Amino acid sequence: LTSWNFKQDKTVIDLGDGVKVGGDELTIMAGPCSVENKEQILETARIVKAAGAKILRGGAFKPRTSPYSFQGLGEEGLMLLAEARAETGLKVITELMDIAHIDVVCKYADIIQIGARNMQNYALLKEIGKLDKPVMLKRGMAATIKEWLLAAEYVMNEGNHNVILCERGVRTFGEETRNTMDLSSIPLVQQLSHLPVIADPSHGTGRWELVIPVARAAAAVGADGIMVEVHPHPKNALSDGPQSLKPANFRLLMDELDAITTSL
Ligand code: PEP
Ligand code: MN
């Protein structure tokens, strides 16, 4: 179902109000790793909207490596995302980790994110396949291209064909970066599949200084969009501060992406 043999035109996810993923434009999803409080998410939403982003990201249910780390605000975080959407008009993407939270996440999200750790949670993939809600499926920590596409097949096989793929780096022997961003997977998957492919240079590198150059590269290889973590005060972030862009750097990135996409 993911392949060009099944469908010959590129999949465009239409979120309404002119916001699309997979269309002619590079779609920007930006926001904090986690929704932390009302001020933080509203301030970030205003900043990314003004800079040209179309979709607000922010985790309310967080898959943290340590159980002692901030786990997210849960439904309260989702409500804050909805408030930010109401004020700015941004669409909202947020992670769903558990079948038990499908109803509550669907109530607030425009796109459901399935994180790297759940890419092969087949029970969860089957359940979201039954929904009428776009899904962004992040590449698993160590997933091959085939495994990633087969995970998308799990969703589509249940009827939900509104699937976006997101390259977020894979684990290698490298220690200097959090993951190794696999830029080649973007054109490769686009050659194999009609589904849109987004790049996440924030989790792909884990270092804010690398986010801008790798995002530029992702745009240049033809990504359908970029997801990037932005925080008004990265030093105080409750998660992923070291890979979060400050507002000024996000604006700089947006200008540079404009220059790349208009020259392509
Ligand atoms: C995220 O985008 O917030 C996230 C947890 O990413 P990943 O699943 O790629 O690690
Ligand atoms: Mn994060």
TrEMBL record:
Q: Does the keyword Transferase apply?
A: yes
| Limits of the DAHP synthetase I/KDSA domain | 11-258
Record-level GO BP terms: aromatic amino acid family biosynthetic process
What's in the keyword line of the UniProt record?
A: Transferase
Enumerate the GO terms in the molecular function aspect: aldehyde-lyase activity; transferase activity
Does the record's keyword annotation contain Cell cycle?
A: no
User: This protein is called what?
Assistant: 3-deoxy-D-arabinoheptulosonate-7-phosphate synthase
Mapped onto the parent protein, the portion here is 74 to 337 of 350
